[in-house]
Specification:
With 335 residues, the chain is an alpha/beta fold. The protein is built from 10 helices and 16 strands. Helix content is 29%, strand content 29%. The strands form 4 sheets. Strands 6-9-10-3-11-12 form a 6-stranded mixed β-sheet, with helices on both faces. Helix 4 (113-125) crosses helix 5. The longest helix has 16 residues, at 171-186. The radius of gyration is 23 Å and the shape is globular.
Length: 335
């Protein structure tokens, strides 16, 4: 199944998020939509999936114009979407999430046997490993993503939109997803892959559309260099090899010792974390979404309620003071 967009325009007040965008993904093809955060990629796909209404333009399936006013309309014409932030209920099982909104019952009792068989069939066909009876909250992020993909395929999606699908994945999970995309493509599924990661685009895309500030600024192939793609994304030449000068480090500015952050149920989110930042230093904290980075940042600003340990600015302990006092203390630090 092919999907074509003609002149899609979407504005929010005076801000034009999508400006007369044209693109087409053919049957069994992977189309990558590449662009910086805020370029308009997700807005465009939310229009295609019926979450937003375009101000003007056409959506065509196999050359025929269709009207999509809701996700249900999108599914009816064969379009499925996996969002960057999964639309799953953590306390439900995989099967319960997949049938949500399409439930079948006998005498008022939810029946899942048929759904579980369909899930297993799709999982086997596309080499997905997933247990229909597993609770979503107990599954790794990569497996949760498979549940989202299976949900789309279960309702006969022929065009699958993946919105920043690798943003929450580890490198290993990313490679597994790219392999899944290749398998889906081999089975005839058309895929729209939204991302800003150049390596992934070059590995799996058949064609690449680059969007910048709501407009299509390039339509190229994966043979284009990373430098060429990056330049299209930002609008000027880009040097992807950083020029690093040696840091001139001073004394400790921030010292964190044995920091623990707990959620409201008492579950430990951050476990005995310690780190130091010196004057003139950049400290990077890496990890996929959901591994405590946000809670760490909030704890350092005293926005978290359940925290133990020590956080010192210079020689002054700041853990437990007010947010205003924290910000004031930060403003007095000379880096």
């Amino acid at each position: 199944m092919s999907l074509e967009l003609k002149g899609i325009t979407k504005s929010f007040g005076s801000f034009v998020a999508n400006d007369a965008i044209d693109l087409k993904v053919s049957n069994g093809e992977i189309l990558a939509i590449l662009g910086e955060n805020g370029a308009g990629k997700s807005t465009l796909m939310n229009v295609v999936y019926g979450l937003l209404k375009a101000d003007s333009g056409q959506i065509l399936i196999d050359g025929k114009e269709v009207s999509i006013n809701s996700p249900a309309d999108a599914l009816k014409v064969g379009i499925g979407m996996v969002h960057q932030h999964f639309m799953l209920v953590p306390v439900f099982t995989v099967a319960e999430n997949i049938v949500l909104g399409h439930e079948e019952s006998k005498r008022g009792v939810l029946t899942l046997a048929e759904a579980k068989e369909k899930i297993k069939k799709i999982a086997d066909e596309f080499k997905f490993e997933i247990d229909p009876d597993a609770l979503i909250e107990e599954l790794p992020v990569g497996v949760q993503q498979r549940a989202e993909i299976i949900r789309a395929l279960m309702y006969d999606a022929k065009v699958l939109i993946l919105d920043e699908p690798t943003a929450v994945l580890t490198p290993q999970e990313t490679d597994e997803l790219l392999n899944m995309m290749r398998v889906l493509k081999s089975k005839g599924t058309s895929i729209i892959f939204i991302t800003h990661k150049l390596r992934e685009v070059k590995e799996v895309a058949d064609q690449i559309v680059v969007i910048r500030r709501g407009k299509v600024v390039g339509n190229t192939s994966p043979t284009a260099s990373q430098e060429e793609l990056a330049s299209l994304m930002v609008g000027h030449e880009v040097d992807l090899i950083p020029d690093r000068s040696e840091a001139n480090l001073g004394s400790n500015v921030l010292s964190v010792r044995d920091l623990n952050v707990f959620d409201t149920s008492g579950r430990r989110i951050i476990n005995n974390l310690s780190l130091e930042i010196r004057s003139g230093e950049i400290l990077a904290i890496a990890g996929v979404q959901g591994n405590g980075q946000s809670e760490l940042t909030r704890a350092l600003l005293n926005l978290e309620d359940h925290v133990t340990g020590s956080v010192k600015l210079g020689s002054n302990e700041i853990l437990g003071i007010s947010v205003n006092q924290t910000l004031h203390s930060l403003s007095l630090i000379h880096i």
